[in-house]
Amino acid sequence: MTVFTRPATRADTRQMAALAGPEVDAARLAGWMAEDGTAWFLLEDECGTVLGFQQIAPDPDLPGDACTIATFLGPRLLPPGAAAGLFDAAAEAARTLRYTWISANLAAANAAARVYYQNRGFRLYSKQNDRILMRFDLD
Fold first, then answer.
1. 113: pLDDT confidence band, cut at 50, 70 and 90?
2. How far apart are alpha carbons 99 and 114 in whole angstroms?
3. Strand partners, 137
4. Which of 8, 9, 18, 103 lies 20 to 30 angstroms, CA to CA, from 51?
5. Which DSSP symbol is given to 6?
6. Are 90 and 44 in contact (CB under 8 A)?
7. Is 129 left (phi over 0), alpha (psi -120 to 50) or beta?
8. pLDDT in tens, 68-83
9. How far is residue 39's CA from residue 4's CA, in Å, rounded to a whole number?
10. Whole-prediction pTM value?
11. Contact between 50 and 17 (Cβ < 8 Å)
12. All domains in the chain, ordered by first residue
């Protein structure tokens, strides 16, 4: 399978919402995509099927030079390095938006997400109840 990383658009929101879960619909995603300080990227296969997406956005609980990141991946097995390419695009966008670090807020029970972010270079900076906060410092 060949996968591509590219910026997400409003035309992608229906497929993205299907990955995000029942509490998120395409209209809500489109609204979030229009907000300042955000960037959205997706993985798709050669047929145009969205396999996952990632977004960065400001967070009122973080300093102004930081953004939060969220990753949604479908159940299909991805080729090695595909999700890393998704993060590379998001990190470059964060630099362009002048963020200096990225925060990932994870469920403590989500071992797969923790491994994914650790493999990207994130490090633990806080534990809060059932959440783990991880940080990636941008160059």
1. very high
2. 22
3. 101
4. 103
5. E
6. no
7. left
8. 999 998 877 788 888 8
9. 17
10. 0.92
11. no
12. 3-137 (3.40.630.30)
